[in-house]
Amino acid sequence: MSFNLQANGMTVTIASAPVVPGPVAPLLRRAAAAQEDDFGPNVYSTIDVLWVLYDRILRISPDRPDDPDRDRFLLSKGHAVAGYYAVLAAKGFIPPEWLDDAYGPASRLGGHPDRVLVPGVEIGAGSLGHGLGLGVGTVLGLRAQGLLTPRVYVLLGDAELDEGSNHEAIAYAGATGLAGLTGIVVDNRSATHGWPGGIATRFTVNGWRASTVDGNDHDALYAALTGHDHHRPHVVVAVVGEKE
Amino acid sequence: MTTVAEQTVVEATMTEAETVMRDRFVDTAYELLAEDPRTAVVLADISADSFSEASRRHPDRVVNVGIREQLMVGVAGGLALAGLRPVVHTYAPFLVERAYEQIKLDLDHQDVTAVLVSVGASYDRPEAGRTHLSPADVALIDTLHGWTVHVPGHPDEVPPLLRAAVAGDGAVYLRLSTMANSRPYGGDGSLRVVRDAGPGAPLLVAVGPLLDESLAAVAGRDVTVAYTHRPRPFDTAGLRALAGTEVILVEPYLAGTSSRMVSEALADRPHRLLALGVGRQDLRRYGTADDHSRWHGLDAAGLRRSVDAFLG
User: Fold this and answer.
1) Do B145 and B7 fall into the same domain?
2) Lower Cβ count inside 10 Å, N or C end of chain B?
3) B169 and B206 fall within a common domain
4) In a domain? residue B26
5) What is the per-residue pLDDT for B14?
């Protein structure tokens, strides 16, 4: 597959059908079994970027989930939850057994994640368009306390960008050079009216640095997610299969 | 820049009373920023000029996001998640009505709190029309759990209320107004008897700036009058101790906002309740705040008519 991104004329080639990362696959199957169903495309569109973040990028540990100096990962598109729970289990934040009765009456794992119920979850999400504003505030709060090492990563979807609240955050973060913030937009072209001119331009016109990569290519994701500079916010557009 | 121009218009049309109550807030917030490194102020252009010196001294903790109320509350949620104590301030309709989902989700659902401080209560700026009226703000906050709501009745009540709110860790809505009583009453928010007509007399509870009009309204009638600047949590124990059969609520926001508190507190007693406040209808009229008080029956004469009809 290949997709022509109108923003800059670049073409991102998606080399292969998505494969669930090895350590996550059995956990995801376990969660699917609990639901007596397979998962929707939103799970597979997001699993690779989640895995690269948790496996190679985020400075977090299940032993110190409240460490003030930790990186923050904010899942704004809260419906991408099954893969998120599977990754949290793979990395030791939650017991794998929790996956077996996910969404049940006694479960801490709901159809959208709740930070009060699930260790390692930084924000409760579900209603779209809340993560980026919370992320901006988190960067400001860390900076005000002199905590300049932690980075705040916010994962959104291309359809989620329909919500105007995102554009309040994009404009403000760009105008103020909020360098501690990385936005990640998983683009499966599910926005009803699309983004003519490309997603990245929504950010770059406001002063963000932007990278657009194959959202299933772990090395490309890693390179993009570590490609920020120190004077402006950074967005990584992770292109995956359509409605994947 | 349009934001500056708009803000100049807003501030130029503020009445002296509004400036007084708001200035007490700004001065106290300035002190709190200097005293406590946890304190942060989040603005959406409104009052930004008043915070310019604070912003210069504490650039990391005075955040003006522009005219972006959703972001304003989202940023407050993020600041709180990072360990700060945000004070969030703008016009009441934009703070509570426009950003209601952010209050519900970015604060409450994240299990974090902030101190919300509004100006432009109910019909404080009637010449601006319906868009700047916000009689429903306390009722909206009341749909959420665990909030403290303060409606000060005098500028001198504002600094201690703000200080206590910022020092604590709860969710607080502090509702500033151009309307004020002639003197402060203070206290901790429990019902304070200002006029005692003896056991069994009808009880009138006046919230915030409507105390003076309420006292004038019941002159010559045997009605006990109690004051509170804290409709949430409502002093139900005090209400049970003071109430006879008849209870009259006088609230400077949507009529009936505290009716459920009275009904629940007196559920085991036969009682009658008259709930007075601002009406729901968009009057589509400008004029002055005094005009709107009269139209909503919240001036002394209007209150008297309602009380007389209720008590017979």
Assistant:
1) yes
2) C
3) no
4) yes
5) 46
Pick the CATH number of A2-61+73-239 from 3.40.50.970, 3.40.50.300, 3.50.4.10, 3.40.50.1220: 3.40.50.970
Whether residue B110 and residue A133 make contact (CB cut-off 8 A), yes or no, is no
Task: State whether ipTM is beyond 0.90.
Answer: yes
C-alpha pair distances (Å), A168 with each of A129, A203, B82, B116, B198: 10, 11, 20, 20, 57
pLDDT tens digits for range B249-269: 999 999 999 999 999 999 999
Q: Say if strands B203-207 and B192-195 run parallel, antiparallel, or are unpaired.
A: unpaired
Range of the domain at B101: 2-175
pTM as predicted:
0.93
Min CA distance, B15 vs chain A (Å)?
Answer: 31
Nearest residue, CB atoms, B75 vs list A123, A140, A145: A140
pLDDT interval class at B17 (50, 70, 90): low
Question: A83-137: per-residue pLDDT in tens?
Answer: 999 999 999 999 999 999 999 999 999 999 999 999 999 999 999 999 999 999 9
Q: Tally the C-alpha atoms within 13 A of residue A122's C-alpha that lie toward its C-beta.
A: 31
Minimal Cα distance from B83: which residue of A? A141
Q: Please tell me which of the candidates A68, A144, A169 has its beta carbon nearest to residue B60.
A: A144
A39: pLDDT confidence band, cut at 50, 70 and 90?
low
Helix (H, G, I), strand (E, B) or coil at A207: coil
| Interchain proximity B40–A138, CB inside 8 Å | no
- B104 shares its domain with B217: no
Chain A residues with CB-CB distance to B under 8 A? 68, 114-116, 122-124, 127, 129-130, 132-145, 147, 164-165, 168-169, 171-172
Taking CB atoms and an 8 Å limit, are A134 and B77 in contact across chains?
Answer: yes
